[in-house]
Structure formats: structure tokens, C-alpha cells
């Protein structure tokens, strides 16, 4: 009985919802007709919108999260969010309106059924918002403010310019702040403000803080971060891609290297398979699989970097299922093993030792094929060739040898 009475007086945590605005067409990006809107463009292997949603979802106090999307974008949205880790906290998206203001209003109406106490409104093209910024907005709301936004002080000198490009005024920058998102609000008053604006036909607000101000609410600022950029132009997209790539590699701090070696003898035939491509030759390489000595060496190097045995332990030559198999299968398995541990392949370096065939004319094709199989950029694959100065079995043209080095990056344990 006492336990029940005590439970009845424990306050219920406030419900904090998040609304992510992603219904725009991105006209300032200057994308080619028919290309995806900017929020669905990839940076660091994931769409901008997916990264924006995931960045908000780090704050476990937020539930649900709801995206407002263009009515024609449902399929591309579902593909974009398929692999993000939000689970049931991610509500079904709703279609937006002709303006950002109309889209937010539509999202707020959809959220009303969840009866949230507060709502955070965030741009779908701000993928780098930090947990500290999100927490600062939430904490300010919980401290008693009705409306809060993240912002940064203006540091550049501002000029007001007329249509001809002539400066007509220098604007003092003191006490000027550049607004960002998320912007946080008590849910009821913000929905009321949007309903009033829609009813009165007032539709020129560029952010929700302005809607709240217009409806008589005081809005407060918390310190944002300059890294919380809004991706608007092609230059922004390039900067975002560079940062996302840098962040991804920085998270993989356990750097490992493995080496591989393989050799196969010649037999009667009319081509050799090297680096995933067929090269005309008066002999072929003999082996249980397709005997691609180059891919075998790379596969062994990757397994070595993982400390996970060698190609023979994963694909025994005594197993009949691998007879005549493409060595691409073996390499893809090694690449998958890296991915399964949350890692990435940073660099592959292959050296082929033979008198013939000539490797030079096929080097770029081999690099491209290896990169394709491994899912990495071609500038992360090196292919070199040398002879053994007519010494040994390669010098006598009895076979081909290959040596490989693989550098991989894994998350720190």
C-alpha cells in the first residue's frame, strides 16, 4: 500500500517530442533537375536527414521524433532512415506544406496526439548538432522558459546592401546572434501560435522563434556551436562531406595492419585471373578456386589484420563447394568481417611478382575492380608489379606470386 501511495506522488517526467523539418526542395543547392533534394544527399555514407535525426536521438529524453517530408518523398525517406538506430521512438512521417512555416504547423498537429509537454524543432539539414547543444535547449525549457533557441554570437562585420551592390549601412554586431536549431518550446503555446498565424494568413516567418515572439512569448538564447552548420549550398555540402568523413575515421582509432602472400603455378590455358579481371595469356593459374593469386593475398592480409585466421581456414581447399569458385567471394567475406566489427578498410597495397603477363596495361582496371569489391575508393588501392630478375620459380615462368598489405581501422574496444 505504501509503495502504491509513494508511486502516485512521483512526478511523471515531461514528454519532449522532436520535429525535424525536411520537406523542402533545396533550390539554393543548385542541384541538377531530377536529383535528390539536399536532405537526402549522402555525407559520410549516410543521408543528411538520417544523420540529423540520429544526432537528435542521442538525447534519450526525446520521444517521439517525427519528420515532416515532401508528399512525394515517402519512398526515399524510408530508404534514408532504414538503418538508423532510433527504433519505436521514430514516428511515421507526415507531409509538409508549401512553406517551412506550414510544414512545422503540419508536424505540430501530427504530434498533438502524443500530448507532449515540450517540442524541439530542428532543421533536417543540420546533421552536426551536438548532444551538448540539444541538452542545453532542453535544460533551459525544464528550467522554466517557454521558448529557447541555440544561437551563436555574430563575429563578422555586417553590411546592409542595396540592389545595386552599394553598401548603405554598417550594422553594429554587438548583441547580434545567429539563430540555429534546435529551437525548443512549450508545445501548447507553439501550436496555438501556429494555428493563429494560419488563421490570420500571416505566413512570412522564417523560424519558429519568430512565430512565438509574434504571439507574445519571450524567447531566450542558449549558446550554440559553429559546427552546427546548416547545409544550404554546394560548398556547404562539400564541407559537410569532408567533416563527416573525418569524424568517421576519427571514431575508428584502432589501426591495424596485416600482410598476405600467395602463389599459384601455371597450367595449360588461355588467360589468368588477377585482381578480379581476366587477362589474356598463353597459360592459366592452377588452383582449387579460380586461383586469383592477387585477391587471395589481399584476403589473407585482411584476415591477418583482424587476427582471424587465413583464407585456408575460412575456405578450405578440401571443400568441394569452392572448386572453381570466384575469389571475389573470399575477398567479400573478409571485407564483411571488417564491417561486422564496425571497422573500415583504410588502404590496400598489392605487389604481383611475375615475368608475364605484363601487369602495367591492366593496373588501373585491377585497382578499380578491387575497390569495387571492397567498397572503398580507388585511391585507397595500390597495385604494383615486379619481376624476380629471372630468379626462382617466377623467373622461370612457372607461376605467379603476390604479396599484399592491408590497413584497417576498428573502433577502440
In short:
This protein has about 425 residues and is an alpha/beta fold. It is built from 13 helices and 18 strands. A seven-stranded mixed β-sheet has the order 5-4-1-6-10-7-11, sandwiched between helices.
Can you describe what's shown?
The protein has 413 residues and is an alpha/beta fold. The chain contains 13 helices and 18 strands. The chain has helices spanning 2-9, 48-57, 74-81, 100-111, 131-142, 187-200, 208-214, 234-251, 293-306, 311-314, 327-340, 363-374, 392-395, and strands at residues 16-22, 42-43, 46-47, 62-69, 94-95, 118-123, 147-153, 158-161, 167-171, 177-186, 219-223, 254-268, 271-274, 277-280, 283-285, 344-353, 381-386, 399-410. Helix 3 (74-81) links the parallel strand 4 (62-69) and strand 5. Helix 4 (100-111) packs across helix 6 (187-200). The mean pLDDT is 91.
Mean pLDDT: 91
What assembly state would you assign to the polypeptide chains in this entry?
A: single chain
Q: What fraction, in percent, of the residue positions are helical?
A: 25-40%
Main sheet: strand order: 5-4-1-6-10-7-11
Can you identify the CATH class of the largest domain? Alpha Beta
Envelope shape: elongated
SS elements, strand count? 18
Uncertain residue ranges:
none
Return the structural class. Answer: alpha/beta
Amino acid at each position: 500500500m505504501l509503495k502504491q501511495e509513494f508511486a502516485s506522488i512521483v512526478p511523471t517526467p515531461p514528454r519532449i517530442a522532436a520535429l525535424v523539418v525536411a520537406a523542402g526542395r533545396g533550390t539554393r543547392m543548385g542541384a541538377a533537375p531530377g536529383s535528390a533534394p539536399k536532405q537526402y544527399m549522402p555525407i559520410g555514407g549516410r543521408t543528411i536527414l538520417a544523420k540529423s535525426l540520429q544526432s537528435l536521438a542521442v538525447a534519450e529524453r526525446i520521444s517521439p521524433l517525427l519528420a515532416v517530408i515532401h508528399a512525394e518523398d515517402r519512398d526515399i525517406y524510408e530508404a534514408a532512415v532504414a538503418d538508423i538506430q532510433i527504433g519505436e521512438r521514430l514516428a511515421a512521417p507526415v507531409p509538409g506544406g508549401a512553406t517551412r512555416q506550414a510544414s512545422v504547423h503540419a508536424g505540430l498537429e501530427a504530434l498533438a496526439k502524443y500530448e507532449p509537454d515540450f517540442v524541439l524543432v530542428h532543421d533536417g539539414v543540420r546533421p552536426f548538432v551536438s548532444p551538448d547543444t540539444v541538452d542545453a535547449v532542453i535544460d533551459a525549457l525544464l528550467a522554466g522558459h517557454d521558448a529557447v533557441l541555440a544561437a551563436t554570437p555574430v563575429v563578422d562585420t555586417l553590411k546592409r546592401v542595396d540592389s545595386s551592390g552599394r553598401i548603405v549601412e554598417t550594422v553594429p554586431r554587438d548583441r547580434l546572434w545567429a539563430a540555429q536549431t534546435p529551437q525548443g518550446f512549450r508545445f501548447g503555446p507553439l501550436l496555438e501560435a501556429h494555428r493563429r498565424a494560419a488563421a490570420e494568413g500571416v505566413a512570412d516567418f522564417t523560424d519558429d522563434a519568430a512565430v512565438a515572439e509574434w504571439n507574445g512569448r519571450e524567447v531566450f538564447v542558449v549558446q550554440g556551436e559553429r559546427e552546427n552548420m546548416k547545409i544550404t549550398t554546394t560548398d556547404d555540402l562539400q564541407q559537410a562531406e569532408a567533416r563527416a568523413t573525418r569524424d568517421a575515421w576519427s571514431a575508428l582509432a584502432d589501426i591495424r595492419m596485416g600482410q598476405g602472400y600467395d602463389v599459384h603455378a601455371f597450367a595449360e590455358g588461355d588467360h589468368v585471373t588477377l585482381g578480379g579481371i581476366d587477362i589474356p595469356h598463353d597459360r592459366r593459374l592452377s588452383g582449387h578456386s579460380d586461383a586469383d593469386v592477387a585477391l587471395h593475398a589481399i584476403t589473407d592480409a585482411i584476415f591477418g589484420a583482424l587476427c582471424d585466421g587465413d583464407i585456408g581456414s575460412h575456405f578450405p581447399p578440401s571443400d568441394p563447394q569452392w572448386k572453381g569458385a570466384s575469389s571475389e567471394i573470399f575477398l567479400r567475406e573478409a571485407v564483411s568481417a571488417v564491417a561486422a566489427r564496425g571497422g573500415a578498410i583504410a588502404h590496400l597495397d598489392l605487389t604481383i611478382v611475375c615475368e608475364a603477363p605484363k601487369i602495367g596495361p591492366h593496373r588501373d582496371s585491377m585497382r578499380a575492380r578491387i575497390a569495387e569489391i571492397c567498397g572503398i575508393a580507388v585511391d585507397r588501392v595500390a597495385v604494383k608489379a615486379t619481376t624476380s630478375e629471372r630468379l626462382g620459380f617466377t623467373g622461370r615462368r612457372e607461376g605467379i606470386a603476390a604479396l599484399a598489405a592491408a590497413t584497417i581501422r576498428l573502433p577502440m574496444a
